[in-house]
Amino acid sequence: MTDTTYPIDPATKPEVTAFFDPQTNTISYVVQDPGSDACAVVDSVMDIDYAAGRIFFESADRIIAHIREKGLKLEWLIETHVHADHLSGAPYIQEKLGGRIGIGENIRIVQDTFGKVFNEGTEFQRDGSQFDYLFGEGDTYKVGGMTCFAMHTPGHTPACMTHVMGDAAFVGDTLFMPDGGTARADFPGGDAGELYRSIRKVLALPQDFRLFMCHDYGPNGRDIRWETTVGEERAHNIHARDGVTEEEFVAMRTARDATLDMPKLIIPSIQVNMRAGKLPPKDDSGKTFLKVPVNGL
Fold it and tell me: 35, 97, 199, 251: which is deepest, by most CB within 10 A?
């Protein structure tokens, strides 16, 4: 059964507009309160040409144009976790449209872990203060008149949160589409057992709740998709459908993760995203650099 401490609201059905980034297979969302012009942005993207060391904002500009065209008011920029496969566009969008940037409170753990990996000095704060708000388990917030809440769903990373807005849940990398399975759990701070329990928590939401993925890779050549339901995941998810035990899941996930390469953009992504989407500070010459830790990941 769903935890009754959560303010479940199946009658509220926000309008969800998706933006797919083919470079990183990331889906960002604009979520509009059905009763007002208020909206939230979930998991935005800042573009990077890593080989050229160049960043640009085409993906974020698409979101900004959509919000402006519809006359919406941006209230929140939600990060479901510290992404390892794309850079966040949240500060750029915030500069243009306002809103508050929020992430799970265990960002502090991620900052401490990767602050060491990237040899950040003491000037790099590891208290989450780069973000406007740190969500804890069960925290509620408003988008217009719509009450939303955050569920702590660790396993992929310690800071992973699922955000539920009306009948729509944004699961980050916790789940993929049913034929895509589930996220990896071998990053620092990841844990396959925790991931299994987090998935069961998400799948305890009402059966017809809409679930929105952060990534899709078109398994077996199918078209890219990003929306499913709790019921579809419970019946058909190839890794975590009903009946799969935690022991079976952990064995599968551990074996599978051992075969996976690191995400292509993990080095720039983590350095930027643990700073709430901001680039590292400029050096004395006014230039910005990203570090590459040798044998550090």
Answer: 199
